[in-house]
Fold this sequence. Notes:
9-stranded mixed β-sheet; alpha/beta; glucose metabolism; NADP binding; binds ligand LXAUTJHC; oxidoreductase; binds NADPH dihydro-nicotinamide-adenine-dinucleotide phosphate
Amino acid sequence: MHSDKCHVINCDANADICLGLIRQSLKKFTIEDDGTCFDGRNPHCFVILGASGDLAHKKIYPTIWWLYRDNLLPRNIIFYGYARSKTTVEEIKRKCHKYMKVKEHEGKAYAEFWELNHYIAGNYDSRADFEKLNQELNVYENGVIGNRLFYLALPPSVYEIVTVNIRHSCMSSKGWTRIIVEKPFGKDFDSSQKLSDHLNSLFTEHQLYRIDHYLGKEMVQNLMTLRFGNRIFNPTWNRDNIASVLISFKEPFGTEGRGGYFDQFGIIRDIMQNHLLQILTLVAMEKPASCQPDDIRNEKVKVLRCIKPLKLENIVLGQYVGNPLGEGMEKLGYLDDDTVPKDSITPTFAQGVLHINNERWDGVPFVLKCGKALNERKAEVRVQFKDVSGDIFEGKPKRNELVIRVQPGEALYVKLMVKKPGMAFDMEETELDLTYDRRYSNVKLPDAYERLILDVFCGSQMHFVRADELSEAWRIFTPILHLIETDRIKPLPYTYGSRGPVEADELLYNNNFRYTGTYQWIADQKSHL
Length: 529
Ligand SMILES: NC(=O)C1=CN([C@@H]2O[C@H](COP(=O)(O)OP(=O)(O)OC[C@H]3O[C@@H](n4cnc5c(N)ncnc54)[C@H](OP(=O)(O)O)[C@@H]3O)[C@@H](O)[C@H]2O)C=CC1
Ligand SMILES: O=C1O[C@H](COP(=O)(O)O)[C@@H](O)[C@H](O)[C@H]1O
């Protein structure tokens, strides 16, 4: 059984469930949504549409299990899987198992979790099947006010019909209904607008939670605190001091098995237009009026509005080719994937430069770089400061760089110059280093999806994408995406497992980012204690 212990993470002042969780532990759980009050034992239904799919097995079921296990969900909850397949909860459980990370002592809670799970097979376009789902939810709610949360773990082709069916057949009668939508949110400005118009015709913006899971990552959420909770960064956070900002995402594997999906979208839509641009907004936005979700999202939109559409001369595109010497075995190129058309020009690597035309950032390049089948897994932000002016030292000081490493291994380090320790008066490059697994070795950092799904229960939209953010993001990338497609711009080849096309480094250099190759990180520094 669940204990009364209350863990509260990631709460903002408005997050009703966090208050609720506290009240729940006091047995006086009250949620105010649309002016309605609830008792903590009110029923909650979490419905996973697309329950038989990859996303559901790999991410959504594991996430709700971890939240359940950690007592972060309302105590009166059931989970409904819905998909076309004639599958069962047992089968879903079997498919999810390797992603659930169940510890030995958690067997009892794990069994309880699956007892709360149900499955309904139904078609996405069948009103009758959604009515059936609704009846089951009603039976569970038993006339008591219930809250419903629908997770669209589905291909975008069925978003429209599924949301119509939810609207017409499955809304909570007196409680709240929230819809979590996964990317892709359209393929370009027009298709995204069409989807937004459709969703807005059915739901209010407060009912819609557009997930960008990078907004749930520790170091991405940390950007605001770092910038606005410290005195030292803000005064230098501008065009007078910063030379260039590089935001990158690298994956060491190709599209293996997902070529069919990926080829329709490409790396710009898959990573740059959403994850990297979201990070950019948090790096560049002005201080919001408060930590209220809409104050933050207003600032993000303002930054986006200052960015002109990405131009062809400001982008390097790449597509990986096979590497016969791949680690241990040959690595196939993108076009060798059977699910990819042989003449595909879809980029698997892209590096683009954006400019923010405002008083703070005028002239500072923001370089977004992302790619698959590269040499390592890495996501990070590098804020590179300008050269020291009026230098007095022999041997020019290297530029300061603030590195915010999102993954793997969350860390924050500032590269800086010191006097070489000892008798000499030479300079040496070193770092101020905040490595999370050393400094916070006793803290378990939750997975991005855990934070975000909990936020949905909380009613906190701080880390979700608002419709106007989305349309600004598409405005910036749609012209280049169309140009690549209509003019069939060929990406540059790069070898699987390499750093990507060398032209990307040239573009970076031309955008005032200096890589010297002189910085040396000594990983195992011995403690003198
Ligand atoms: N707290 C910690 O754990 C810390 C760890 N370190 C580690 O030390 C190592 C080095 O630190 P780091 O800050 O990366 O130092 P560097 O200045 O050496 O930067 C290295 C990165 O620069 C990029 N690069 C390589 N060649 C070029 C080029 N010609 N032009 C432009 N960019 C280039 C590469 O990234 P890409 O391929 O993405 O372009 C490379 O990873 C890293 O592994 C880092 O994680 C450092 C400090 C603290
Ligand atoms: O959204 C996506 O993200 C993943 C990478 O996510 P991460 O949390 O593992 O960094 C990427 O593999 C996928 O192509 C993309 O759609």
